Each structure stands twice: as C-alpha cells, then as structure tokens.
Amino acid sequence: MLVLKTLGLFVLTALAEIAGCYLPWLVLRKGASAWLYLPALLSLALFAWLLTLHPTGAGRTYAAYGGVYVSVALGWMWAVEGVRPDRWDVIGALVTLAGMAIIFFAPRTA
Hints:
Small multidrug resistance family-3 protein; EmrE-like; transmembrane
C-alpha cells in the first residue's frame, strides 16, 4: 500500500510541476493570456508543497521523483499535446522508473 501511495503522490507532484511550467509556455510560445501565470504560480506552489509530503529525505525524494516525472511528462505529451511517445520514449521512461524504484524502495537500515 505504501508503494501505491508513494507513486500516486509522485504522479500528483509531477502533474502540478508540469502544469505550472506548461501554462507559462502557452503564454510565451503560443500567445495565450498572461492570466495563465496565476494558475501556473499556484500549481508550482502546490508542487513544492507536495514534495514535502514524501516520507524520506529531500535529496532521495528529488532523485526518485525525477524518474516518475519523465513518465508523467511523456503521458502529458500524449494526452495534452497529442504527440504519441515512440518506442525510445517508452524505453527511456522504463529505465528512469527502474532507477526511481532502486533509489526509493531499496531496503535500508538507516
């Protein structure tokens, strides 16, 4: 259960970060309304807060989070931007998830 809770928290954290960065991208690259900076700011604040909810040290959390972020970013690319990941994207995501699992779920005594 802890594994599912942790992965779910990582996914929510990644979605908050991606949304917080994607909205300014829309303003700067696509000419969207500057009002999108407000939800972007809130989303990035949510992202920072969600990172504090993880049960281990910040450095290990950030390292493991990076693996999940890659996978969620590729899902965002497909769902929001309409660009389907290719096999190299999928292989890369699997490698980063394997690294994330090693970092975050390795049995440790300290």
